């Protein structure tokens, strides 16, 4: 796999000899020798060259001098491909500062000085250190025959990868406006924290959450390296909780109960960049007065790169069962509240919905039932209509009827066969020619019935189509594509199944076994529009995924394209990792289908009806997605062509 924009980083918690800088520098070096050769940035804890708990030893000039000697030793001996933040006390003028020195290519390029010094409970740093707020203008130190800038406004810009690295120190994160927020506004996308945060009950979870939240607020990678158990235990215990997060997602961690000297993760700079281009509110006030120090990291060789970060095959679906049920019920609540609000605003007490016995219409009916409960409306105001046609099977028809009965809605059966055959005669369509006209005529007839029944009953037609169908245009224009309010429009197909399943599990808890059973059978029914006749055994013959490819793949492509705007080649590489059991040809075939249909079907999305957003991806032309219907797909499909040639699937 190509390295793309992955920037590999590590947080270290080395052993510490309090007051022995050279031993500490050697301990740091020893850990760096264990790192993957693709790691480009290392972060160590606060005051890692001296130990954080030196107390009044910080006043000792000998300790300060030896810390500089240890910094020189570390700088000269660190592998040249590594950049590193290391902590030490530095005297400038008449003040001592708690600092983080940045080493790259065996040079110290600059130093960050801590801004916020805690002076409460167990912390009394102002006893020894001065805040960077009192640094003199253009503060520098002379080190290794060079003048090194010291500042609280300093970032380091990697000319190779585009990483912009900046440090803060412990308390700088815990204040109301963290220093790293200013760094991010100045362009930093890799935020580092050299920390010495002790262990007390509940602090570990809070610390983890604040790191994750800060990475999310600033659309950044965040590396947190914390002092470990070798610090003095006279009054405190330090657990060495190291954390690496990326834009609200925890990539790696250690803790007191799970101690690790090294944690490593790969931060994706591309998705951070793309999110910053899109969600740019935080970066509209550019921070001024920052020092920008360039450095270069060694390019990663493709043959040496291995992606170690987890690639989720089902990015829309939580893997944990409890989390999944909670997520699904929350989505269902959003859908129901959206519909309830619409009905209340237009003073409407009836809806019309087509029920096929498939997943999408089942979810839409569940939404209607919950919306009516929210409004204390009679469920008989839900007019659910089955419209059997040429492809309807006994299984789906039976499930549709059972579901309507169990939810106590008004149910109607209106066969569409005679009307469609009359339509075929009107347009001179051979009923034995099972082409797109044959299929779409049925879909449009069903929509006409729904619309006219709604007119007759002063009701609202509820759309059932989902996000994945909209992405692929797998809906008939002016047929099932159209409704008066579409409740599933931002729910992907892979999640629809689990929302229905979650309601089935809740029905079982409430001892409603019949509802559980019918919902589970609907979940297990193959996805199909049922527009072609059944097979000789009366079972579904037209299976959507045999035509389009797996919805598992399409939802994966959809997520990575729309959420992160990644290229076809990168999405393909990620899909091969996520779907290890799916052959390359199948993935590429689905990828081609996805891009071709995504571009060619935009005209349907441009006129889609109202429907609430429930997740990070939505196609509403009034909200999240604006795209011309005649945009060219050439560049995207050309990249798929190149992949097919690379794998011998195309000459």
Descriptive notes:
The protein has 651 residues and is α/β, with parallel strands linked by helices. The protein folds into 2 domains: 6-304, Nitrilase/N-carbamoyl-D-aminoacid amidohydrolase (4-Layer Sandwich); 321-646, Rossmann fold (3-Layer(aba) Sandwich), CATH 3.40.50.620. The chain is 38% helix and 17% strand. The chain has an 8-stranded mixed β-sheet with strand order 6-7-5-4-3-2-1-14. Strands 13-12-11-10-9-8-15 form a 7-stranded mixed β-sheet. A 5-stranded parallel β-sheet has the order 18-17-16-19-20, sandwiched between helices. Helix 12 links the parallel strand 19 and strand 20. The longest helix has 25 residues, at 321-345. The relative contact order is 0.08.
Quick overview of this protein structure:
With 651 residues, the protein is of the alpha/beta class. It is 38% helix and 17% strand. The protein has an 8-stranded mixed beta sheet. The chain has a 7-stranded mixed beta sheet with strand order 13-12-11-10-9-8-15.
């Amino acid at each position: 796999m190509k390295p793309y924009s992955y920037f590999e980083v590590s947080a270290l918690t080395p052993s510490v000899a309090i007051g022995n800088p050279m031993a500490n520098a050697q301990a740091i070096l020893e850990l760096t020798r264990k790192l993957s050769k693709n790691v480009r940035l290392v972060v160590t804890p606060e005051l890692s060259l001296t130990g954080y708990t030196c107390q009044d030893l910080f006043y000792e000039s000998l300790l300060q001098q030896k810390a500089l000697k240890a910094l020189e030793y570390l700088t000269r001996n660190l592998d040249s491909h590594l950049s590193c933040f290391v902590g030490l006390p530095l005297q400038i003028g008449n003040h001592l500062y708690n600092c983080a020195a940045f080493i790259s290519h065996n040079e110290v390029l600059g130093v960050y000085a801590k801004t916020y010094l805690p002076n409460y409970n167990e912390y009394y740093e102002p006893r020894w250190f001065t805040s960077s707020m009192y640094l003199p203008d253009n503060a520098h130190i002379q080190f290794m025959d060079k003048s090194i800038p010291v500042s609280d406004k300093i970032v380091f810009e990697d000319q190779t990868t585009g990483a912009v690295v900046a440090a803060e120190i412990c308390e700088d994160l815990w204040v109301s406006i963290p220093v790293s927020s200013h760094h991010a506004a100045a362009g930093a996308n890799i935020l580092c924290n050299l920390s010495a945060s002790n262990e007390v009950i509940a602090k570990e979870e809070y610390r983890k959450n604040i790191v994750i939240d800060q990475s999310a607020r600033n659309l950044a990678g965040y590396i947190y390296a914390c002092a470990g158990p070798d610090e003095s235990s006279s009054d405190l215990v330090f657990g060495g909780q190291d954390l690496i997060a990326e834009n609200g997602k925890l990539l790696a961690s250690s803790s007191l109960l799970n101690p690790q000297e090294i944690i490593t993760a790969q931060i994706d700079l591309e998705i951070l960049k793309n999110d910053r281009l899109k969600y740019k509110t935080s970066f509209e006030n550019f921070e001024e007065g920052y020092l920008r120090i360039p450095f270069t990291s060694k390019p990663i060789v493709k043959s040496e790169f291995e992606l170690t970060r987890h690639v989720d095959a089902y990015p829309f679906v939580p893997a944990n069962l409890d989390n999944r049920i909670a997520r699904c019920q929350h989505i269902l609540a959003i859908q129901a509240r959206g519909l309830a609000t619409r009905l209340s605003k237009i003073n409407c007490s009836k809806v019309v919905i087509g029920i096929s016995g498939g997943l999408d219409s089942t979810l839409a009916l569940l939404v209607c039932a919950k919306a009516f409960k929210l409004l204390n409306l009679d469920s008989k105001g839900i007019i659910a209509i089955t419209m059997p046609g040429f492809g309807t099977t006994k299984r789906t028809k039976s499930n549709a009827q059972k579901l309507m009965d169990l939810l106590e809605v008004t149910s109607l059966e209106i066969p569409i066969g005679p009307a469609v055959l009359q339509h075929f005669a009107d347009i001179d369509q051979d009923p034995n020619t099972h082409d797109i006209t044959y299929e779409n005529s049925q879909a449009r007839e069903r929509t006409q019935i729904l619309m006219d029944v709604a007119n007759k009953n002063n009701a609202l037609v509820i759309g059932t189509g989902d996000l994945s169908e909209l992405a692929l245009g797998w809906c008939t224009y002016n047929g099932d594509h159209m409704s008066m309010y579409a409740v599933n429009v931002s729910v992907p197909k892979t999640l629809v199944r689990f929302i229905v399943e979650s309601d089935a599990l809740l029905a079982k808890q409430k001892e409603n076994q019949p509802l559980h059973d019918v919902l589970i059978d609907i979940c297990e029914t193959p996805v199909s529009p049922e527009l072609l006749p059944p097979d000789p055994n009366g079972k579904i013959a037209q299976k959507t995924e045999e035509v389009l490819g797996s919805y598992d793949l399409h939802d994966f492509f959809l997520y990575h394209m729309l959420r992160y705007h990644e290229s076809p080649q990168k999405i393909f590489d990620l899909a091969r990792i996520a779907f290890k059991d799916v052959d390359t040809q199948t993935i590429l075939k689905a990828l081609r289908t996805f891009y071709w249909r995504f571009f060619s079907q935009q005209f349907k999305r441009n006129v889609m009806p109202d429907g609430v957003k429930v997740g990070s991806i939505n196609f509403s032309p009034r909200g999240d997605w604006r795209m011309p219907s005649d945009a060219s797909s050439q560049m995207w499909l050309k990249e798929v062509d190149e992949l097919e040639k690379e794998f011998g699937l195309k000459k």
